[in-house]
Design goal:
- The protein is built from 5 helices and no strands.
- With 176 residues, the chain is an all-alpha fold.
- The protein has helices at 4-33, 37-63, 85-111, 114-144, 148-157.
- It has one domain (4-157): Ferritin, core subunit, four-helix bundle (Ferritin).
Length: 176
């Protein structure tokens, strides 16, 4: 059974994950409007991934017989100066989530909530991959300069974030 403080913090993290999903949808819509379909598709996938992270946390709390509270989210940023800015924003978001997951892990450890700490191990690994992937995409965008089609070409050649991880925790509603 999860410690009450850990469960409260994990419920807050659910809100951050849904907020990240909303931000990625806003980024994807921006790229769609700019007729950059590969960048748009990349961020639509990222949005689904963040939503699934939130649902994994929901499932963990349900399995631990703890109340789940789905918090509201802030309005995402939806206008950008250029095609680089959304990726820079996404990288900062991934770094922030990494810090949040680290804080949750530290809290679980301090509370002796070993099941909570174990649950978060997958997220730690995932965040390393997310920061690395977004850092690479940002470098590609910066090198492409004003020619966003070079980024589209890169995404067409590379399979960025397209694999399923069988070690991922189950997500609530995952069989839907």
């Amino acid at each position: 059974m999860s410690h009450e403080r850990f469960a409260k913090a994990l419920n807050e993290q659910i809100g951050y994950e849904f907020g990240a999903a909303q931000q990625y949808i806003a980024v994807a819509v921006y790229y769609d409007a700019e007729t950059l379909p590969r960048l748009a598709a990349h961020f639509y996938r990222q949005a689904l991934e963040e939503r699934n992270h939130a649902m994994m946390m929901v499932q963990y709390l349900l399995d631990a017989d703890v109340d789940v509270a789905i918090p509201g989210v802030e309005v995402p940023k939806s206008s950008f100066a250029d095609v680089v800015e959304p990726v820079a924003l996404a990288l900062e978001q991934e770094k922030r989530v990494s810090e949040q997951i680290g804080g949750l892990t530290k809290l679980a450890r301090e509370l002796g909530d070993y099941s909570g700490e174990q649950f978060l191990q997958w997220f730690i690994k995932e965040q390393v991959e997310e920061v690395s992937s977004m850092s690479t995409l940002l470098r590609v965008c910066e090198r492409a300069g004003s020619n966003a089609l070079l980024v589209e070409d890169y995404l067409a050649r590379e399979s960025v974030g397209s694999e399923n991880d069988p070690t991922a925790p189950p997500a609530a509603g995952g069989s839907l």
